[in-house]
Specification:
The structure holds two protein chains of two kinds. By secondary structure, chain A is α/β, with parallel strands linked by helices. Chain A has three domains: 3-123 and 275-341 and 476-490, FAD/NAD(P)-binding domain; 128-271, FAD/NAD(P)-binding domain; 377-451, no CATH class. Chain A has 15 helices and 23 strands. In chain A, the strands form seven sheets. In chain A, strands 3-2-1-7-20 form a five-stranded parallel beta sheet, covered by helices on one side. Chain A is globular, with a radius of gyration of 23 Å. The termini of chain A are close together. Mean pLDDT of chain A is 86; it is low at 440-456 and 482-497. Chain B starts with a strand and ends in a 22-residue tail after the last helix. In chain B, the strands form five sheets. A six-stranded mixed beta sheet of chain B has the order 8-2-1-12-19-18, with helices on both faces. Classes of the chains: A alpha/beta, B alpha/beta. Chains A and B meet through strand 4, helix 10, helix 11, strand 23 and helix 14 of A and helix 5, strand 8, strand 13, helix 8 and strand 17 of B. Strand 23 of chain A pairs antiparallel with strand 17 of chain B.
Chain lengths: 497, 385
């Protein structure tokens, strides 16, 4: 029997599990969350307002389908490897995790050996740095959303939501539902970009339209002002947030001088897009493509990556939202379990995936980060929060190779390992190099594209040889992949491997 | 004299500075930039403790002295946002577990004969020196001359100082050489031709490949090394502490994974643990085996590390020659071509002495070192004139 391992319990991972099980495979699903559902279906029974949940029946059906799967919640997967074939037992994919609370003394090691793996590790939200963004009261839009959904808590009484993309809308709605006054939603993209992205084929939005209409309705009901071509360029306050300066942004997201105005608020939720979580795919050897504005795992029509037996689905392959993730997950799960591409069971998912992919490309055209944003930074704005590294320090060392720059400034070397600042640091370096090239100071000396024979240029900050923090004692533990016998013991009854 | 130094790692940067200060017109050529590879992917060890009597020990002892004044000079000349070398003469402590005492004692005795300070610590002094060390340790020897620096930043400082002395940095890939009458005349690069009276190959693990492009192949291969960094810890490791089994591993020709565990605290409170050795070509997927093996050994030395979270790991490629000695001097086949590579895991420590030998070979500068054991024409390299 084919054994399919799945990394991630969000929409893509759950759909992959359901499909692989339906196709007759044995499934092991590893998810870092305490509850399955990922960011999209983050919830807390009894607390979460049902108006914040979308497609929850689908979620419940997916959960119901997992009866025959081995599921590890609270699993920090710290390594994902492809072993050389011919070792005569088990699959070639080896995943290592520790299960339990991050600070617990007795986290349990789990080693999964499988024939195929679906990487459905999702994305985390991306907030670009803004002067004042380290003040208490500033959160990412995703954090504001998570607190509202899971804990029923608002990050402020008067909250400003700013950034780019349709995700700002449900965040504003959630904040309003948990009692905050949302003083405005500021979308950086301008009419032109939005029109190019949204208008040409409005029927493609049908899948999303119900959800979107609901959000827009919520804005109206809660009297939330929605501004386009506008962004937070400075957060004000001494001890905590007291207000924010918003300004009009041009098509490249540069603030337009003279348009600044102050909005009083006690919280700011920033969300400029998403950063896919690529490290597991990179550790498995999968090719990624793109640049600092968007770097994703390369997949074909079957959701196969460039490595044999490794599939990817959901936001790691392109920011497309939950419907795309569900469809891609299903395709990946079916294919990982051994079904052919023309198997009728794949048909619906393929159709939805192709439509949602087109939509995703349009969303990127409409809302994708534009390079002019670095103009709102001051030299002393902290960009890397873990190590308190400023924009000025990064720009000053921009001409040296990325690795050497990090070691000199310590940008991205702290506990989050550049998960928060990586994209911003790369943008600042690129901007500084470009302006140095214009003034002739560095000339061709700084071509980032071919920087590094070891691929730092290709994957930037996304290569992380350890996928999650793990204690040395847990690392050293002599755990070998479970043999088939051991694995069966851990499985629910009724399952035959 | 126009000298092209190929490679802007620690060896190339040190050579460029030495040659520029002696009045040569220096151009540094690197395909990535300063400290883009091996020199930003290593630990910054300046060790004498791991050297047994022989030519490499002579180089290490000489270099160790040079680093003290060189690091101070680089830090004084620092400008603007340039980071410090973080040079620290912290000393090393080499330990043996039960059964290994006699071997370590014998090794230390041979080191004392060539002037390396090596002091055996009794139980009380050991506890005072490294309070968190495992009680299982049977013997510890203190090497006061072992030191540490931040290799990437130091390479940047060397290059910046060389550039202030008139050297030029060109980021380009060298594709070939033009020779005239058996002597080097110019380099072909991806950004054009660079005329040179002498060329120094400081391409580290890529020195063999580069030699081939220049018409002078060299048997230099990469050895992969993985290093671990923990989250900041309240416990401190005050010296460079390592297990004596390191001594055997460096010279080993075995291709399989080997590990030693040099454990030390950094100024930021993180603990740096390295490193492994694997001869697997330029394979850039080290996987978890080296990490796990290093972790197990580090915990044996410092039990508190079992509960310490690993923050990150990184790896790099070290250049080694078949006889495990650095290759420094003129190529016997092409006049005006010099090599300075093959330093394995010791390039940071050996950089100043290497630069001195290069200045001797290229410019005829004086040296008290014996260049003969390192020459590319030596028997162990198989390079025929």
């Amino acid at each position: 029997m084919t054994h399919v391992a799945i990394l991630g319990g969000g929409p893509a991972g759950l759909a992959a599990a359901q499909a692989a099980l339906a196709a007759g495979a044995a499934v092991t699903l590893l998810d870092e969350g305490g509850r399955l559902g990922g960011q999209f279906w983050r919830h807390h029974a009894g607390i979460t307002d049902p108006r914040m949940q979308h497609g929850f029946e689908r979620f419940e059906r997916l959960l119901g389908s997992l009866e025959r799967a081995e599921v590890h919640s609270g699993a920090a997967v710290w390594s994902a490897e492809l072993r050389d074939g011919g070792d005569g037992g088990g699959g070639r994919i080896v995943l290592r995790a520790v299960v339990g609370d991050a600070d617990a003394a007795d986290r349990r090691p789990v080693v999964v050996q499988a024939d195929a793996v679906v990487v459905a590790t999702g994305a985390h939200d991306l907030a670009l740095p803004v002067p004042g963004w380290t003040l208490p009261g500033v959160t990412t839009a995703g954090a504001a959303q998570a607190l509202a959904k899971r804990d029923g808590v608002s990050v402020g009484r008067r909250t400003l939501v700013a950034g780019a993309g349709p995700f700002l809308l449900p965040v504003a709605q959630s904040l309003a539902l948990v009692g905050a006054t949302v003083v405005g939603v500021h979308e950086a993209s301008r009419t032109g970009a939005l029109a190019r992205g949204w208008l040409p084929k409005p029927w493609e939005l049908l899948g999303k339209s119900g959800e979107l209409a609901e959000y827009v309705g919520a804005l109206v009901r809660h009297r939330i002002p929605y501004r386009i071509g506008s962004g937070v360029v400075r957060v004000l306050g001494v001890e905590r947030v007291e207000g924010a300066v918003v300004a009009q942004l041009d098509t490249q997201w540069r603030p337009v001088p003279g348009t600044e105005r102050v909005i009083e608020c006690d919280a700011v939720a920033l969300g400029h897009g998403f950063t896919p979580r690529l490290e597991a795919a990179i550790m498995l050897g999968c090719e990624v493509e793109g640049d600092r504005r968007g770097r994703f795992v390369v997949v074909d029509d079957a959701q196969r990556t460039t490595m044999p037996g490794v599939f990817a689905a959901g936001e790691v392959t392109g920011i497309g939202g939950a419907d795309a993730a569900l469809a891609e997950g299903a395709i990946a799960g079916f294919r990982a379990a051994g079904l052919a591409q023309d198997d009728p069971r794949l048909r619906d998912a393929l159709r939805v995936r192709d439509r949602m992919r087109r939509l995703a490309r349009r969303l990127e055209r409409a809302h994708g980060i534009r390079p002019g944003w670095t103009a709102w930074l001051d030299d002393d704005t902290i960009v890397c929060r873990c190590e308190a590294v400023t924009k000025g320090a990064i720009a000053e060392r921009a001409e040296v190779p990325l690795r050497a720059m990090r070691l000199a400034t310590r940008a991205g070397l702290g506990p989050c390992q550049a998960r928060t600042c990586g994209r911003a640091v790369e943008a600042i370096v690129a901007e500084a190099r470009a302006s140095a090239a214009v003034t002739g100071a560095a000339g061709e000396a700084v071509g980032g594209a071919n920087a590094g024979a070891q691929g730092d240029g290709a994957v930037g900050f996304d290569r992380r040889p350890l996928l999650a923090p793990v204690r040395l004692g847990e690392l050293a533990e002599p755990t070998e992949p479970a043999s088939d016998e051991n694995r069966n013991e851990a499985w629910p009854s009724g399952c035959s491997a | 004299m126009r000298i092209a130094v190929i490679g802007a790692g620690i060896i190339g940067a040190a050579c460029a500075l030495e040659l520029a200060e002696r009045g040569a017109e220096v151009v540094i050529i690197d395909r990535v930039g300063v400290a883009g590879e091996t020199s930003s992917r290593c630990e910054g060890n300046l060790l004498v403790s791991d050297k047994g009597p022989g030519p490499e020990a002579d180089l290490a002892i000489h270099s160790n002295e040079q680093w003290r004044s060189l690091a101070a000079r680089l830090d004084e000349a620092r400008t603007g946002g340039q980071p410090a070398t973080e040079f620290e003469a912290k000393g090393g402590v080499v330990v043996a577990f039960p059964g290994g005492e006699a071997e370590l004692r014998r090794f230390a005795a041979t080191q004392r004969e060539i002037g390396i300070r090596a002091e055996e610590l009794d139980a009380d002094r050991l506890r005072a020196t490294e309070p968190n060390l495992s009680p299982e340790v049977a013997l510890a020897i203190h090497y006061p001359d072992d030191a540490q620096l931040q290799p990437s930043n130091t390479t940047q400082a060397l290059a910046a100082t060389a550039i202030r002395r008139g050297a030029r940095l060109v980021v380009a890939e060298v594709t070939g050489a033009r020779t005239e009458g058996g002597r080097i005349a110019a380099l072909e690069t991806t950004t054009g031709r660079i005329a040179a009276d002498a060329v120094v190959n400081c391409a580290g693990p890529w020195a063999g490949e580069l030699g081939e492009r220049l018409g002078a192949p060299l048997d230099i291969r990469p050895r992969r090394g993985v290093i671990l960094v923990t989250t900041p810890m309240p416990q401190r490791v005050f010296h460079k502490v390592y297990d004596a089994d390191y001594v055997g591993a460096v010279g080993s020709g075995d291709a399989a994974l080997q590990t030693s565990t040099v454990v030390e605290s950094t100024p930021g409170g993180t603990v740096l643990i390295g490193s492994s050795r694997e001869r697997v070509g330029f394979d850039d997927h080290p996987g978890v085996d080296p990490v796990r093996a290093i972790a197990a050994k580090a915990i044996r030395l410092f039990p508190f590390l079992a509960d310490t979270a690993l923050l990150r790991s990184y790896f790099g490629f070290r250049p080694y020659a078949p006889d495990h000695l650095p290759v420094i001097g003129e190529d016997p086949r092409i006049g005006g071509l010099f090599h300075a590579t093959g330093h394995e895991g010791a390039g940071i420590g050996l950089a100043p002495a290497t630069a001195e030998l290069v200045a001797h070979a290229v410019l005829g500068a004086q040296t008290t070192l014996d260049p003969a054991p390192f020459l590319p024409s030596r028997a162990g390299l198989g390079v025929a004139a």
